[in-house]
Amino acid sequence: MSVSWDELNPDIRLLESKVSLIFTNFVLHYIQNKTKLLHIFSRLLSTEGSIQANIIILPDLNKKLSPDDRKDYYLSVDQQIQQWKEALDANGLTAQEFEIVDDVCHLSRQEIIDLLQLLVYDFRPFFASGDQFEAQCKHMSDIVFDAYVNPGRDVPNPNAWKEFLANDAITQVVLYYKTLRLVAHK
């Protein structure tokens, strides 16, 4: 779904204007170009078709970085929400529901150890290339962990992940994140 309409599989293009429901759960944040994605969805949807999606809104990593380390490609929560609104408008889709929900996830120590690399990978779409991401990836664990575990903390902890790993007494972790609950119609 991250390619142009003409690059889609011909079997998918045969569904143009025939799809009554597109449902997706926690994957659309991986697609960088929201306008292109919703263009494809709009072409697939029938006249009264709808999109129902739960979309992760990634934490603002720039809030956890020093001014010298901030990156333009790390979008704030507001920027991500605005991208979705503009993509809906650009493709003639009307949001029936557009709700930002604060969510939490309670994880065991082993679950967060297993999950952290996926949370880091969630930021891959912000990078211009895979090589750029790979170069930064090794340094992102502390900042991503801190952004999910301590989102409201004013002072970032540049060693949050290392400190967690060094402290075996921490057996539970709570992740805080935002979800966009979207229902849109053609």
Largest sheet entry: 4 strands, mixed
Number of separate structural domains: 1
What would the average pLDDT be, to the nearest integer?
94
State the CATH class: Alpha Beta
Unreliable stretches (pLDDT < 50, length at least 5) are none
Spatial strand order of the main sheet: 1-2-4-3
Inertia-based shape = elongated
- Helices and strands, in N-to-C order? HEHEHEHHHHE
Going by helix content, strand content and strand pairing, the class is alpha+beta
Q: How many individual helices? A: 7
β-sheet strand percentage: 25-35%
Number of strands: 4
- Give the proportion of residues in helices: 25-40%
CATH third-level topology: Rossmann fold
Radius of gyration: 18 Å
Reported CATH architecture:
3-Layer(aba) Sandwich
Spatial gap, N to C terminus: 18 Å
What's the gist of this structure?
By secondary structure, the chain is of the alpha+beta class. The chain has 7 helices and 4 strands.
Describe this structure in words.
With 186 residues, the chain is α+β, with helices and mostly antiparallel strands. It has one domain (5-185): Rossmann fold. Helices cover 35% and strands 26% of the residues. The chain is built from seven helices and four strands; from the N terminus they run αβαβαβααααβ. It has helices at 10-13, 34-44, 77-90, 109-121, 130-137, 141-149, 160-166; strands spanning 19-25, 45-57, 94-108, 172-185. Strand 1 (19-25), helix 2 (34-44) and strand 2 (45-57) form a beta-alpha-beta unit.
